[in-house]
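Operator note (shift B, R.M.): manual run for TetR/AcrR family transcriptional regulator requested after the automated queue skipped it. Running by hand, logging everything below so the morning shift can see what happened. Input copied straight from the record, untouched. If output looks odd, do not overwrite the archive copy; leave it for review.
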Amino acid sequence: MRERVLAAARELAVEHGWQGVRLGELAARAEVSRPTVYKEFGDRAGIGKALIRRESDHFLAGIAEALDRRPDDMRAALAAAVDWTLAEAEANPLVRAMVRPTRGGRADDLLVFLTTQPDPVFSGARVLLGGWLARQLPEAPADAVREAVEVLVRLTVSHIVLPSGNGDRSADRLAAAVLHIAGASR
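Run finished. Output pasted below as returned.
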């Protein structure tokens, strides 16, 4: 039932933007009652948080997989993770629905929620990337790793919201910058 509600919420957000998602229509599409939706998620914001968490988990799994494909080349692994993230964000209808209004000057409510309460997206990415980078650079100071990860996460999100159009060059430049900040010598 939870997955049906989240799938319906995603469909409606893609179709109408988050501000156009109505609980009655959501419940009908998910084939559950409104009280069931309220019981499971609490309120509309609870549904939004659960939807963001679900999408975030998908992105984090893809990033981890991209990093794992290049175990012997940190720069290539980071570039692959950024490139995958940017390509997935561009292809993902929910992400497109969230950022499209921003590019036109009006933010979607779901994007506002994400930027004012960035967990789990930012914290999940920080943990995943911070752990990976610390394992790759055990000699690097922890504060340099944290700073490098912060730059990577924020710049990647910036490229999602306002793409540069440079494709692979952006991913490689971000990877190089992150390794420089972390003090990577290899």
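Quick read of the result: Residues 55-182 form one domain. The two ends are 49 Å apart (CA to CA).
Leaving this for review. - R.M.
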